Amino acid sequence: xxxxxxxxxxxxxxxxxxxxxxxxxxxxxxxxxxxxxxxxxxxxxxxxxxxxxxxxxxxxxxxxxxxxxxxxxxxxxxxxxxxxxxxxxxxxxxxxxxxxxxxxxxxxxxxxxxxxxxxxxxxxxxxxxxxxxxxxxxxxxxxxxxxxxxxxxxxxxxxxxxxxxxxxxxxxxxxxxxxxxxxxxxxxxxxxxxxxxxxxxxxxxxxxxxxxxxxxxxxxxxxxxxxxxxxxxxxxxxxxxxxxxxxxxxxxxxxxxxxxxxxxxxxxxxxxxxxxxxxxxxxxxxxxxxxxxxxxxxxxxxxxxxxxxxxxxxxxxxxxxxxxxxxxxxxxxxxxxxxxxxx
Length: 343
Prior knowledge:
CATH topology: Aspartate Aminotransferase, domain 2
Number of domains: 1
CATH superfamily: Type I PLP-dependent aspartate aminotransferase-like (Major domain)
Shape: globular
CATH architecture: 3-Layer(aba) Sandwich
Radius of gyration: 20 Å
Order of helices and strands: HHHHEHEHEHEHEEEHHH
Distance between the termini: 51 Å
CATH class: Alpha Beta
Structural class: alpha/beta
Largest sheet: 7 strands, mixed
Number of helices: 11
């Protein structure tokens, strides 16, 4: 048999984000494809990481991460998200929220399991499912408000469906799922006995109302895999420090696969994030929202002036143009060309 890439590699494509970033760099353009932060890293985060290095915290950590950050995440989950969790058995520190999702998929999905995505979808979610040999199913959100109804979910599910991915605030559309929609999804997941993978990386970037975590809804704590991180909140996208919070029955398997693939998130950077969570006041998170509303309005107004049609979202990711989706999908996926820079 001649040398060749695996069938898995042949099915997986470079993410649109990477492709557009490379193309933008070639022409020295303004990159609206990748969520590159232009704000300063908060001082407690920087100093916490520096001091950890100076104290010699530079080696491997246990698979679940260092105790200080797990404890800080557990307290944050209680006070901000309203989710009680044990930092010893139900919190895993990952190599970014992307690492969270990949490890969770490896631990909880079998080849051939179906997973529902809302589209427009985040490209890494789709490609991760393909990489673990899951089968993506699609529920199309209808522009301009990116709406769906309960019948859309019921038409999509089959006996082979294992999970649903909920990204709220959503990348790339900026959609914040309403309380009613979250209740629909929760009831649907319980009725069909599904996991819900929630990507909540933009939880602090909600302009109207408040962020609601799926795990707080009745009966959803045990089946929700909550994934998030501080890449955007602390402007540390290159640090790769994310986390997973879930029932202890699932946490051990997820931590095993994360250890197998990534070993651990960088030890001193875990401490930097822990110090940021512990030290930064509530006003820091409120000011993030104010600052990004100003950025959103500046960019949106400028794009409107040059003739683009778009809507300002309730969250920071703006979709400039989404092509019409066709039900026919020979390749098993649908294209999505959207601007996704936090604005």
